[in-house]
Specification:
Layout lengths: L1 E6 L3 H12 L6 E7 L11 H5 L13 H6 L2 E5 L3 E5 L4 E4 L4 E3 L2 E4 L3 E3 L12 E3 L3 H11 L4 E5 L3 H12 L3 E6 L11 H13 L3 E4 L3 E6 L3 E6 L4 E3 L2 E4 L3 E3 L2 H5 L8 E2 L11 E3 L4 E3 L2 E2 L3 H17 L19 E3 L7 E5 L8 E7 L4 E8 L2 E8 L5 H10 L14 H6 L1
Parallel strand pairs: 1-2, 1-7, 2-3, 7-19, 9-16, 10-11, 10-16, 11-12, 18-20
Antiparallel strand pairs: 4-5, 5-6, 8-17, 13-14, 14-15, 20-21, 22-23, 23-26, 24-25, 25-26
Helix pairs in contact: 1-8
């Protein structure tokens, strides 16, 4: 029986396993998945609600041990892959085991960035990316009273809100002019800032950290304007970078990520990569949804081709599509998809009810919806996203578009 090995056991790797099982792949291949974290795949997207105490640890799990056993999948947890031997077709593990493969999938994901600032080695300074980081934050939060979160993107704001719910005084530092500047325009960003401030967060835009101060553990942070903020915890949520060390050491073609074609094939025809560790046509991926779509493509390819494919396989390749995002903070509704900043080729359709605090900014190009921002009431988000993906001609519903699907369907 041939052997498929998957290195990395996050959400995308688990989705690939599920699709392979559905296609009957595991009846003909011996499948092994290797994860360095102590637990098998879990829902990393829900770490913020877990940190806030809104869900239990068991609810994070994507599959129980019996699932892997039932489908003949060998699941290795808490044992990192440290080397890929392409010539010998094996993966070396931290405990010395060699796991042979006929085909290999690299799904190592990405790692959180820790900036090279003075004081980042102090106790109480960390990133927020995985279950281990979450557990460390929970442990520290039992005695800490204040925290600084660096980064006003989705992950930073969710972590900040969760820590505030745990009773900490939290300050968020964001270097851009408004929160979620990659997903929201200035108006929606301002609305979000006011609402989060009402929840008790101290939000400071156009702020940069220069150093973290303390003896053995963090005591304060020094800002670029010379001011200081007392803090017993500092959490960085300032971006990620693909984990490509294994692939680079194995001699695979890498740039910022592991280079793949539309069928997720690397420069070695027996090795594939998907999710946040890969790069296609210069694009890397920081959300789980593209990885899910890549898993569908790769499951089809692995199932329908008996030999290492050359040329264009008989299954559709992966294509980049518009992405939609939501914020996971209780009481705040927002949705964003596609383009968020108008330019000379676009028009803006705006609905703003200041009393209800509802805001919609739709961006149109050539009678096609190409982007949408919703704040306050995000229920119509999936419908707008569907119009963006389909490239719907909105010329006949243009005057009703900002009011949502019911108005457009009645037009």
């Amino acid at each position: 029986m041939k052997k498929l090995v998957i290195v990395g056991h996050g959400m995308v790797a688990q989705r690939l396993l599920e699709r392979l099982v559905e296609r009957g792949f595991c009846a003909h291949w011996q499948v092994t998945v290797i994860g360095e974290e102590p637990q098998p795949a879990y829902n990393r997207i829900m770490l913020s609600p877990f940190l806030a105490g809104e869900m239990a640890a068991d609810d994070l799990s994507l599959a129980g041990a019996d699932w892997y056993a039932a489908h003949g999948v060998r699941c290795i947890s808490g044992n990192a892959a440290i080397v890929i031997d392409r010539g010998g077709r094996s993966v070396g593990l931290a405990d010395g085991e060699q796991v042979p493969f006929d085909r290999l999938v690299i799904a190592t994901g990405a790692q959180a960035l820790m900036p090279g600032l003075p004081g980042t080695g102090l106790e109480g300074v960390q990133v927020f990316r995985d279950r281990g980081h979450c557990d460390a934050l929970l442990s520290c939060a039992q005695s800490a009273t204040s925290a600084v979160v660096v980064g006003g993107g989705f992950l930073g704001l969710e972590a900040a809100a969760a820590l505030a719910k745990r009773g900490l005084k939290v300050t968020v530092l964001h270097r851009s002019g408004h929160l979620l500047n990659r997903q929201l325009d200035r108006t929606a960003g301002g609305m979000l800032q006011r609402e989060l401030a009402q929840q008790g967060l101290d939000l400071r835009c156009n702020s940069q950290i220069q150093a973290i101060e303390g003896q053995d553990r963090v005591e304060s942070v020094l800002l670029n304007d010379g001011s200081r903020i007392k803090a017993e915890q500092v959490v960085f949520a300032t971006g990620i970078k693909p984990r490509i060390d294994l692939a680079t050491a194995a001699g695979l073609a890498c740039d910022r990520g592991i280079e793949v074609d539309p069928w997720l094939r690397t420069s070695d025809s027996n090795i594939f990569a998907l999710g946040e560790c890969c790069q296609r046509a210069g694009q890397t991926y920081g959300l789980v949804e593209p990885g899910y779509r890549q898993a569908e493509v790769l499951a089809a390819l692995l199932t329908e081709s008996n030999d290492a494919p050359d040329g264009a396989p008989g299954v559709p390749g992966y294509q980049d599509e518009a992405l939609a995002t939501r914020l996971k903070i209780s009481g705040i509704e927002l949705f964003s998809c596609g383009e968020i900043e108008p330019d000379d080729s676009t028009e803006s359709l705006v609905y703003h009810d200041q009393e209800l605090r509802h805001y919609r900014h739709l961006i149109v190009r050539n009678q096609r919806l190409v982007g949408a921002i919703l704040y306050g009431d995000a229920r119509e988000g999936p419908w707008y996203f569907d119009q963006v993906q389909k490239g719907t001609d909105i010329s006949t519903i243009r005057q009703h578009l900002a009011f949502g699907s019911a108005w457009c369907e009645a037009a």
